[in-house]
Each structure stands twice: as C-alpha cells, then as structure tokens.
Write a structure and sequence with these properties.
The chain is mostly beta strands. The protein has one helix at 100-103; strands at 8-11, 14-18, 26-32, 37-41, 46-53, 55-60, 63-68, 72-75, 81-85, 89-96. The chain has a six-stranded antiparallel β-sheet with strand order 1-2-3-10-5-8, with no helix packed on it. A four-stranded antiparallel β-sheet has the order 4-9-6-7, with no helix packed on it.
Amino acid sequence: MPRFEEWHSPLAGISRKIFPPGKSIMSMMIKLDEGAIGPAHSHPHEQLTFVISGKIAMIMNGETTVVGASEQIFVPGDVVHEVHALEDTVVVETFTPLREDLLATITEE
C-alpha cells in the first residue's frame, strides 16, 4: 500500500497522491493522461475539483461541464459523476467529510 503523499495508480492513465487529512476534510492530487476516464460513481461526500493544468469534462446527471486550468467545479454528495481528461491534466480534489474508503488505501508505515 502507498503512504500519504506517495503517487499510486488506481486506474490506467490516472495517478493520485492522498495528503494527510484533517478531522473532517481531506484532499488529493490527481494526474490524468489525455483520454483517461474516471468511471461514473457517487459518494455521500461533497467534492471540490480544482484544475491546476489541462482540461477535463465532468459529467453529472447527464450534463457535461468542461473545466480548465484555474477553474473549479463542485460535486454535491450522492451525485453520480465521471470525468474525462481532454488533455493531460492535474487536479486537486477536496472532500468533506473524510473519504474513509480512500484513506483505507494508505498505510502510515
């Protein structure tokens, strides 16, 4: 298992590093290769996705929003969403409350 702030690849074309969390908020950085797809999913957590570089298409409730560098999109809890990398892209995602499912993929040793 990776440690906090170590890069790992949960899906083809996608790498992420999870930062140490606070008590009720957490974030991670994600690199997406052009053409990579984060498949449709939902979770009860609120999510902010800030694009550092590149461009993504975020699909929520059948509606597509293109988000580019220095832009951010809000994903409400329990909304089905997926992401398509339109270019090589780097994003930071922030969640509240903590995504225990993601934290379970990290070891502190």
